[in-house]
Amino acid sequence: MKEVTGNLCAKGMKVALVVSRFNSFLTEQLVKGAVDAFVRLGGDESDLTVVRVPGAYEIPIVASKLAQKKCVQAIVALGAVVQGATTHASLINETTSRAFSEISLATGVPVLDGVVSAENLEQAVERCGTKQGNKGFSAMQSAIETVNVLEGLSA
Predict the structure, then answer these.
(1) Of the candidates 49, 17, 26, 37, which has an alpha carbon nearest to the alpha carbon of residue 113?
(2) CA-based, 20 to 30 A from 56: which of 19, 30, 73, 96?
(3) Is residue 132 part of a domain?
(4) Which one of 69, 88, 95, 106 is the catalytic residue?
């Protein structure tokens, strides 16, 4: 039986981070987590490209452009959307999540969802580097493993 699994080795890998500037006090923690994961797993920080966009809603269009150019092997989308008094946050979360999947399938370049979706600020802070870990770190781990699985399928 043949089994294809990914490993967590980022050596030689090129990855882009598309980062929302909105809620930057949260998203900068996600960036730190993603960079930490990449370097710890053997990647060279010079192989990371960071692209900043105004908010989470703008991440998909930039991720799509990067994926079409095939200049990176994976894209990690980082943002923080905190639910307010309206349904606006839910709309953003659903739209971006769907877009990331569509971009990945259309281009073959995985777009990993590192956008924190939280009901309140306390939850958001927990997911950006405290009690609940760092979603940037885990999204980068998933990106690295997915790239390695895809390469294993090509072999």
Answers:
(1) 17
(2) 73
(3) yes
(4) 88
Give the domain range for residue 74. Answer: 15-154
In a domain, 70, yes or no: yes
User: Domain for residue 1, yes or no?
Assistant: no
**Is 52 tagged catalytic?**
no
- pLDDT tens for the chain, residues 1 to 155: 988 888 999 999 999 999 999 999 999 999 999 999 999 999 999 999 999 999 999 999 999 999 999 999 999 999 999 987 567 788 898 999 999 999 999 999 999 999 999 889 999 999 998 766 899 999 999 999 999 999 999 86
Question: The domain spanning residue 31 has which CATH number?
Answer: 3.40.50.960
pTM: 0.94
